[in-house]
Design brief:
Elements lengths: L5 E7 L6 E7 L10 E2 L2 E3 L6 H13 L6 E6 L3 E2 L6 E9 L18 E8 H5 L4 E6 L2 E8 L2 E3 L1 H13 L11 E2 L9
Parallel strand pairs: 1-7, 9-12
Antiparallel strand pairs: 1-4, 2-3, 2-8, 5-7, 6-7, 9-10, 10-11
Keywords: Hydrolase, Magnesium, Manganese, Metal-binding
Cofactor: Mg(2+); Mn(2+)
Organism: Arcanobacterium pinnipediorum
């Protein structure tokens, strides 16, 4: 089995026009407070990436693992600031739930300030895309519905859009400013 430190879940609705779940990390979190992320976190014991992603998703937003169909994994990525090896898992929410009939989320007040379902088509739209820069690092970012997705989550979202066939040409020279409430601490 591949060595990894953490896993995240890119959870999609099963609709033809799918949405993906993102969370805003609680302001009291030790790292990345206020930033947008996929549900996920650190591996416990001998867990697989799928087990870690499903457990963390249940802990953070209350979605039961049996309501998620795992669709595979994307290649692991090493977080530049921490050196942690993170495995992105892709899953689909049970078909009985949709953006018009949402899953009744139960947010962990310690970890999650809010949760949002964002349509992949909206994320892929060129008006919602750009490039962020922080210090010497840059990457793909998204500004949608008052949310700024950047950093590792922005990179993973870009890879998810490619994986799911939602790519569109976008202006990579368009600079997105990281709002102070989303900037690293």
């Amino acid at each position: 089995m591949t060595h990894f430190n953490a896993a995240v879940l890119a959870l999609l609705t099963a609709e033809d026009d799918p949405a993906v779940l993102v969370t805003v990390r609680a302001s009291r979190m030790r790292s990345h407070a206020g930033q947008i992320s996929f549900p996920g976190g650190g591996k416990e014991g001998d867990e697989t990436p799928v087990q870690t992603a499903l457990r963390e998703t249940f802990e953070e937003v209350g979605i039961c693992p049996e309501d998620i169909d795992v669709d595979g994994q994307m290649p692991a990525i090493v977080a530049p600031r921490t050196g942690q090896k993170i495995v992105p898992v892709v899953g689909r929410l049970a078909a009985r739930y949709s953006t018009s009939n949402p899953y009744p989320l139960v947010l962990s007040q310690l970890e999650v300030a809010s949760a949002h379902w964002l349509k992949l088509a909206d994320l892929a739209h060129p008006d919602n895309r750009g490039t962020w820069q922080y210090s010497t690092r840059t990457g793909p970012g998204f500004a949608l519905d008052g949310l700024m997705i950047w950093g590792l989550t922005g990179y993973l979202m870009d890879r998810l859009l490619i994986r799911e066939g939602f790519t569109q040409p976008w202006d990579v020279t368009r600079k997105l400013v990281i709002p102070s409430r989303f900037s690293p601490r």
